[in-house]
């Protein structure tokens, strides 16, 4: 493995990092397990893309049979595209009824921004601090996590305006009742923008604060923001790339948790279970206005293969009750993590819902000092105990727990025992 890692580091751009200083070489995946070249298996607590699990035979068979039958692009007319877009439109809340198909979350976000700028004719996009929305010029411009780029806040282009991160646990205002304070700050932002002659094209945010580790937004936050943005003629974009598709257990869409309907939804990751799929779902009038400026085409977006895989993922989720499993196993896991929080001072907070959970590690519970180095050490120790998990957030001190939705109670317990063991070792 060392020689192979060296070859990887020689040819693959170093900025595309790998987990762990000495990573296991992964050879196989099965359900929520990954198996290395020594036959060691790990519970995969991090893979939010492989929603229905690794190595799913139904996906392998769908891909094989579609490849041998037909794969082409969306300028041709074929049934898979119609069935998949109808299915997505059915899942989306009213009045969102029109679908664009692309290949990734970044592309979906980029397209959503273009739709909003075109529809409104306005010039400014509001995004929350500490968020991540993708890597293209536009998606990167609205991503401001200082953990990823320490100069993020100073280097945003003119068309981006960052608003306070609505983090109800460690943000400027705390608690689920803190929305009015964040909204009052937003009023100030909007006034400043208007004073500068700037107009709001869109507000974009994840409906659950993913990059911070799955922190729920303050109650009523999105409803308040959407109302203010819409009253200025802007559109509201929900970046559901990470948190949707049943991962939250009780909710298929993250926006359900906040009781709002956006104007534009972006999705990806879970849609293809690892096959590159992304989509934008919006209202017909927004899509029509975009069409006035010329056609849109993505060579592989919406291919028969992609649509077939997308349909199969949704079939598996339904047939195997994976959203329900996310709710049940997620509740069990969260309760276990909260119990660890009662015993170990290192655990400052437990976030999230369903199988999108976060464990904030702090060295001081009073002032919430991030335990960044300890978080990294815990992840290394968990690897030795057969669990793969990694830290997130601006301080890289939140264990981000987002396994395949087929996670079993037994594997959740394996993870809880391993974490208990590591926390015990670290605090004695
Ligand atoms: N939006 C969010 C919220 C994301 O988490 C990500 C990926 N981490 C993206 C957009 C970009 O998606 P992709 O990596 O598929 O381009």
Automatic annotation (TrEMBL):
<protein>
    <submittedName>
        <fullName>Aminotransferase</fullName>
    </submittedName>
</protein>
<comment type="similarity">
    <text>Belongs to the class-III pyridoxal-phosphate-dependent aminotransferase family.</text>
</comment>
